[in-house]
Design goal:
The protein is an alpha+beta fold. It is about 25% helix and about 30% strand.
């Protein structure tokens, strides 16, 4: 009953918004605009703020032991105007605890006892860790004294956990290969519109993190290699000279250098032969850090220029089991992606120093890293890598709340995935991939959960969230691209990224920025794609002789303002194509009249939507003189 009420409310709100040509806005977001932290022109408001932390941690991993141990100090800065009497600590790996709320089933090997806090201190004073009630991915803690505006506080944690045997986003890849993600206690986001982020991680949705600074000392036994987010500050202290030289050469090389080969691994002398080696990584102003560890993964690396003006390079690396044949090309795939995204779409220089693709099972993105499967088809392997690398921009360069508004990162990554695919595969094959993986699973479906508006908070959904975040949102962006043209669309996108990189943009900041930069109110199209329960279904209603040509009536049955091509066939065997853009529906949402000026005799017309797949293609073709009712 609650679900039905929510759906009816959203549909009513979106329909009212379409009539008024205003965008529905939740009350918490309205308050942010009233407080001046957000502004109607899409820029951060004059009162915008966000909090920040510095993490210094030491992690100890000793495979095949599954116990991961860590200690950290978090210096947390309260830049808000609020006095904070409590804090929320995220313990994401408690998702593995029996009884944790999750949207995905759990096999026995998935379950662990979760995160164990061994010691906890605030400003150097030991404090009892809350107990007596079951806690999962959120732990609310009372501060010993209030944290005033523009003051800081220091949290200290010692903790351990057992790495999960079933690898997904993180966990054990094999007995001596681990991928560590979401592994440390962290302070949740406290923001200007929602306060503390207390949304449970339920394993189907993703994350929301502040931009922090990290220093991570990673302790592993001799002969174990570590790949991770950030700058490896001490390669000479952990690598033997031969491998150090190869690694350093790769940072400026256009060629792929095999830093560590299978033959090298067999010598068991790649690292310094201390009982334990400490690999140190540092990075600033980034939402998260992740690490991969193995004693039998090979290591390839190269680099590519990502900023044509400064000639700045980014390192492209791959860590994998040598039996994964597609990974032998992974550095080239990564170099291609970094350069293409930097120069074409979005056309913003890759902001970090490196990207590492680590062989795992998740097909999941992290700052400067991806945990990807191996595939028999290297074309598909590249396709997956490109999607994960595209996520660099959203949600990492732009601090998207993926948990609630996942369409702001998955939708954009899906769009960039298609655009790079045009160059990789050609138009037909790229669009076939896109339709197969992003559209056809829902476009013909009548399931009500797939008709919920994209703007619906994803954390309130379990069924249609994926559809909204990936294909439907991406088509909305592509419809806007079609309306504005590439040049203006890119100008709007660049300004949105310029205004909000390193910050936490909301959907309304994005919509308002595009309106502001384009110099026109685009809410009619935002409303249609992001606030409605529409689908894509166009039909040719009639084609009639009209003056010096023909008049074609195109009916919009599904409601989405989708661009489409009208393919015109003449009796002499010739054809021509007339494009119908989203603007055709601005004044009349249900019908568009298309005029064909010609002296030729028309035989038939057909609608072809490309990636904008039509729910019913049976009504997409008509012969001259016919008229159909819908």
């Amino acid at each position: 009953m609650i679900y039905r009420f929510l759906l009816c409310f959203l549909l009513l709100a979106s329909n009212c918004a379409v009539i008024a040509q205003d965008l529905f806005m939740p009350r918490d977001v309205q308050k942010a605009f009233k407080k001046g932290t957000r502004s109607p022109d899409g820029k951060p408001g004059k009162n915008y703020w966000q909090n920040h932390a510095r993490y210094a941690m030491t992690i100890t991993v000793q495979p095949p032991s599954r116990t991961i141990r860590g200690s950290e100090t978090i210096t947390y800065y309260n830049n808000s105007p609020d006095t904070l009497r409590n804090a929320n600590i995220k313990l994401f790996l408690n998702i593995h605890k029996p009884g944790a709320p999750r949207n995905i089933g759990s096999a026995p090997d998935y379950l662990t006892s979760g995160v164990h806090i061994d010691a906890y201190a605030v400003n150097g004073q030991k404090v009892p860790w809350p107990s007596g009630r079951t806690q999962f991915t959120n732990q609310y803690v009372r501060l010993p004294k209030p944290l005033l505006p523009h003051d800081s506080i220091q949290f200290s944690f010692d903790w351990h956990y057992e790495i999960s045997l079933e690898s997904g986003r993180e966990g054990m890849i094999d007995s001596t290969t681990y991928f560590l993600a979401y592994f440390y206690p962290r302070v949740a986001v406290y923001d200007d519109y929602n306060g503390w982020d207390r949304i449970n991680f339920v394993d189907s949705h993703e994350f929301y993190s502040d931009f922090n600074d990290y220093t991570v000392n990673f302790n592993v036994p001799a002969n174990y290699l570590v790949w991770g987010t950030g700058t490896l500050t001490n390669p000479a202290e952990v690598l033997q000279p031969t491998y150090l030289s190869r690694y350093q050469s790769s940072l400026t090389s256009d060629e792929v250098i095999r830093v560590v080969t299978p033959a090298d691994l067999s010598t068991k002398n790649i690292t310094k032969q201390n009982a334990m080696n400490t690999w140190q990584f540092k990075t600033k102003n980034i939402p998260d850090v992740t690490f991969g560890v193995s004693d039998h993964y090979v290591w390839d690396a190269g680099s590519v220029i990502v900023d044509s003006l400064t000639r700045r390079r980014a390192s492209a690396q791959a860590a994998y089991n040598d039996t994964a044949k597609d990974y032998h090309q992974m550095v080239e795939f990564t170099k291609h992606s970094l350069a293409w995204f930097s120069k074409r779409w979005p056309g913003v220089a890759y902001p970090y120093e490196k990207f590492t693709v680590f062989q795992g099972y998740a097909d999941m993105e992290y700052p400067m890293m991806a945990n990807n499967s191996t595939f028999a088809d290297p074309v598909f392997s590249r396709f997956v890598a490109e999607h994960e690398i595209a996520h660099t921009y959203m949600p990492f360069y732009m601090g998207i709340n993926e948990t609630r508004y996942g369409f702001m990162d998955e939708g954009w990554a899906t769009t960039f995935e298609l655009l790079i695919g045009y160059d990789d595969l050609g138009k037909d094959r790229a669009e076939a991939f896109y339709r197969q993986f992003r559209v056809q699973g829902w476009t013909n479906s009548t399931a009500p959960e797939l008709l919920i508006p994209v703007i619906t908070p994803a954390d309130a959904m379990s069924g249609g969230a994926g559809t909204n975040m990936y294909g439907k949102a991406s088509l909305g962006y592509l419809a806007m691209k079609d309306l504005l043209g590439d040049q203006l669309f890119k100008k709007c996108l660049h300004e949105f990224m310029n205004r909000w990189n390193g910050k936490h943009p909301l959907p309304w900041d994005m919509f308002n920025t595009f309106n502001n930069v384009a110099g026109k109110n685009l809410n009619w199209l935002w409303n249609n794609w992001f606030f409605s329960s529409n689908h894509t279904d166009l039909a040719i209603e009639s084609v009639q002789k009209s003056g010096a040509g023909y008049s074609v009536s195109v009916k919009n049955i599904g409601g989405f303002f989708a661009p489409v091509d009208l393919v015109i066939k003449y009796t002499d065997g010739s054809t021509e194509t007339k494009h119908i853009g989203p603007a055709a529906w601005e004044k009349n949402a249900k019908q568009a009249m298309v005029t064909i000026t010609t002296r030729k005799k028309l035989e038939s017309v057909q609608l072809k939507g490309g990636v904008f797949m039509d729910a019913d293609e049976m009504n997409n073709t008509i012969k001259t003189g016919e008229k159909k009712g819908f």
